[in-house]
Structure formats: C-alpha cells, structure tokens
Task: structure prediction
Amino acid sequence: MSDIKALNEAVIKGDIQTAVTLTQNAMDAGKKAQEILDQGLIAAMDQVGDRFAKGEMFVPQMLRSAKTMQECLKLIKPQFQEGDVTSKGKVVIGTVKGDLHDIGKNLVAMMMEGAGFTITDLGVDVSADTFMKKVQEVEADILAMSALLSTTMPGMRETIETLQKAGVRNKVMVMIGGAPVTANFASEIKADAYAPDAGSAVIEAKKVLGIS
Amino acid sequence: MKPLEIPTFQPRLKVLNRDQALAIHAAALEILDKTGFRMEHPGAMEMLADAGCRILNNNWLRMPSYLVEEALKSAPTQITLYDQKGNKTMPLANGNSFYGTGSDATFTLDLETGDRRRAVKKDVENFARLVDGLENIAFAMSMGNPEDVPIENIYVYVFAEMVKNTNKPIVFIADSGKDIAKIYDIACQVAGSEDALQRKPFLLNYSEAISPLRFPENVMERLMFCAEKKIPVCFPSGSNAGGGAPVTLAGAMALGIAENLVGLVVHQLVGKGSSFLFGPNVSTLDMKSSVVSYGCPEWSLTQAALADMRDEIYGLPIWAFAGASDAKVMDAQAGAEAMFSIITALLSRSNLIHDVGFLEYGSTSCLEMVTMANELISMSRFFADGIPVTDQTLAIDAIERVARGEPGSIFLTDDHTFEHFMQSLFLPQLLDRSRYDSWKSAGAMDFYNRCNLEAKRILSEHQVVPKPDEVLKRINEILQNL
Result:
C-alpha cells in the first residue's frame, strides 16, 4: 500500500497519530507538500464527505477525520510559501446578531474546513457591520450566516443590505442556514444559497463558487 | 364490619435507583461549584454575587451548593394552573400528568392538501381551537411561528391568537423583557386584573438557557420578570446528549439539571416562593443528521429518570415532552414514536408534558397528529389506571350466572356487562376495530385520514366560548400599540 493510500485511510479512520506519522514520513521522503495535501488529505476528506452524505459515517467520526486532517496540515503548512496553499475558497461565517447558538454553525465551519475551504469564524451575536467589515478585510468568497431563533432571522436581511450599501454585495456569495431558515426566506432576502444542514452547506458552497 | 377495600396499584415506571439519583444531583452541584457558569445579565450576576456566588472573570460565576438547597426549599412543591375562566384544571403535583402542544414550529402540514408549508397566523388559531376541543389535551402552546405577523412581536401576536381561540391554560414563549410585558398585559385583561392573574394563573412561561452553562441577558430578563410577577415558569435548557451536553445521558442530565438549578436560584432570589417547573430537555443530537431528535427513546428515558429524581430529591413538579416524532409525515413511525413517549411520560408521572403533535423533529406541526395523540393519551391513561379489584370487578356472581345459567346464557346479555363495560374497557374512538368489510365499505381509511376528518370535524363544530367584547377590544388595542 502506498504511503498516500495509507494516509488516506488514516484520515478516514480518524487515526491522528498514524496520519501525522505518515505525513511526516512522506515529507521526509521528499514528497511535495501540495501533493500530500491534495492526494493525501483533501482526497480523504472528499471520501469522508461522501460516506457521511450516504449515511455510512456518523458526525463524530466525520469530525474526527477533519481534526486528523488539521493535525497533518499543521506539519505541512510551513512548507508552503505565504499565500501558496490552494484553498477552495475563503469563507466568513457566524451566527447573526442577537443569537448565541453555535453548535450548527460550528459544525458547518468544521465541515467546510475539512472540504478545503479557509474559514474565518466570527462566533455568535455578530452584527451586520462586523460581517461586512470582515468580508472586505479577508476578501471572502462566501459569507455564511446562521440563526437558530426565528426572531433573529432579520439579522440576515440586514447584513445583506449592509453589504449592498458598502458596495461589496456582488463580490461575495451569501449562504444562510439554521433551524427556522427556509429556501423561500433565502430567496426573499436575495441570499445566493440556502443549506438545510452541514453536509449540504459544503455542497452548496462548492456549487455557488462553481467548483466540484 | 365493612369489607376491606383493596387499593388499586397504578403501573409506574422507575428507571433510577436512589444512588443513581443522588450521584447525578451531586454531579450537578459539582458543575456549579467547580466549573461555574456564564451569567450575562448584570443584575442577576450582582444578585448572585451578593447571595454568595464567587465571581471569576468574564461573567463566570461559581455557585456554592447551599444556594441550591435554599432555592429548592422556597420553591412551591405544587403549581396549579387554571383555565382562562378561573377553573382549577391543572394541579401540577406528584402524580398528575397533563399533555399539551408545542411551540415555534416553522412549518405545518396543511389540513386540506397534506402539504408541508410555512405556518401562518390562522394555523395558530386552528391549533388553539383544536386543543380547546380535545378532551385529553390540557394546555395550548402556539405550534407555529407564523410568517404573516411582524417578527419583532411574533410572540405577542401568537399569544393573542391563543387567548382568542382557547380557554385552556397556555404555555407561552417570549423574546425579552419587552415583549413579555405586553403578553402579561394581555393576560391581565383576560384574567380581569393583575391580582386575579396572580391568584389564578392560566399561563406558564417557557424560557431556556443555552447549554453548556450560558445564561443570556434576554433569557434572564424573562425569568426575572416572571419571578417578580408570579407567573409560573419552566427553564429547560437544551442539554441534548452530544449537542449542548456530553453524549452520555448521565452527564447530559447533570449538566441540564445544573443549568436548571441556576435558573431556580435566580428565580427564587427575585421572587421567593414563585412557581418554578423543574427539569431540562435531555434529548439527543442525531449522530447522522445532527437534528435534535423528538422521537428518540433517550428523551423519554431521561425524563423518566428526572421523575425519579423529583421523587427522591427535588419535590418540584417537572417539565416533559411526548407525542412528537422525527417522521416527516404522520406515518407508522410517527405513531410508534408518539405512543412510546406518551405512555412512558405517563408511567413515569411526568407533570407538564408538551410538544404533542410535532413532526419532523419539532419543525412541523400537524393537526392530525394532535388528534391522534388525544386518542393515544386516552389509551395510556386507561393502562396507567391499573386494574381495580373489588367484589364487583371480580364478578363471581356473574360467572356463576352465566356458567351455570340457562342454556344460551352469555356474558354479553348479563346485567353485569351492561352495568360495567363503559368503565371496565377502553372504548376507542379513532382506532379502528371494525370488521374488514365494513372498514372497506366505509372508505378503507387509514388512521391518518380518520384523524384528518376528526380534526376537520372539531374545527368546524367545536364552539370556543368567546372572550367578552370588552376584553377582545383591549387585546386588539395592545396589538395596535405595539
């Protein structure tokens, strides 16, 4: 079995120790960091995403795989030049103003990170202004907003309007989700995408950016 | 001498022994004393500090156990809810169980088309009227977050809609100290005065902290408002196994109870002796879909365990759920899950049991589901009543008459049957036991369709006793001035 295949399996199994050792071995053997990332780590996470979507894996197993990937990434990151790491896209994520719930949002952030996106997590109770400024600052490709309470959903509309006023609305794709959020609400407030759960958030994110 | 009466044993579920109950309670106290909690309401924080909590940085407090003991002593062991006409209908104490609907569903299954669609104000009206007309549904919750009312005051509108369409007690939700004051105004109009409402409360507020151990300012505002105004409350955080809480049920319960105890302590410091319905929500986060399950056995198990802890330790009436499902339509899964939670909630003597009629893990309300649950509750109550054993029910005389009587003697014609069958047997109304041919010729309807027809019948025939014009006028004024 090739080292890359073994690394694949270690990531899928969530065996952190083995995966880290295999990553170190691959680096010591002179394998390129980009190759380890693409073929060893992201390819494994694609499979994890796939199995999870089919119901063959449970959430904690999927998250352990993501954590395994992150640990391996720490090793290879120094090998990349500044800005050299290829990312699927930059995502700013947070729970809207007035809402302090973060389990769903964290799950989405973890899964997107596992799928190769670069995440800036603003946490909970995030104002429209804070979202807008961070989107500008990191030149985000995607803004992802979450709400658990129906009373805080208007914060999503407000954020989109703030992006509009600041002239950055057309530079970023807006995704929304959370228990009371619906596809209709998303189109009503002119969001670009709606995802009912963490798994589909990744799929939608790829879709709006036109990547597979 | 009068013959001795044999007391009837009423079947009872027990899931914890005393040692388990005490260990979970001790863990809850340890969480508060060692880990502490995050209190984001400055007033509540100050009050807790004055009472003996230690302040760490960043709103973190630690609570000594004696504060919990004091609060448990001052909270009343019985909470009585009245209907809106002032009749005592829900004495919440040890052995009494009452079922009601749930709140805040985003969707509903349309009664006419069966389609899942966004909830509107009319749905809140329909659910309240259905509850009013169903014998075993004791209280109403909104069952919907309607999309056609202003979202800033959504809870005031749904509360007004409920009081207009049912006279049963109401469990309500509010957003902050602001809208709860409006809801309180409406409630005072219905009761006649503040004093009348305090003496005979027909409402109970549902608020929740955020697990793990976070107490937002607006949540505490509501809790303190209720403590002051003597509005009964419950304060169940969502300490769901694997979600807001550890995945193991004992730990999830300990955390949820710890959170509940913080609420209780603040509540009793603000309004000593105000009514506090005890208990967290401990369901599970589904490990595939990450939804909080409304049909899982875990939630039923943890609330049965809480009932044991009530009996061993707390002595306060408890909050519970039943009659809900994760199924997307009212199918066999919905029936199975609804019945599982309904009967176990009753057998463990949970007190106030909400969420009856939810599908799709609480996201969709269903009128047929409430109608079905009404029948399932009736079936469960029959079971929990047990088997009375008396001379009359042993029926030795009837056995003698039929067995040794004239040829052709049967029990069906015996007076004993005529006199006792109504009380001795469960007589279903919607569950079908007809013979195949008559079922077929009556349209071969399944349970869902029979519940659909029954819900429609109740909504068209049941008359809700209307509120006086003057009261309605004032409620509408409150709504107009929001």
Remarks:
- The first helix of chain B runs from residue 18 to 35.
- Chain B touches chain A at residues 104, 106, 118, 145, 151-152, 154-155, 175, 210, 214, 216, 218, 242-244, 247, 285, 287-290, 363 (CB under 8 Å).
- The first strand of chain B starts at residue 37 and ends at 39.
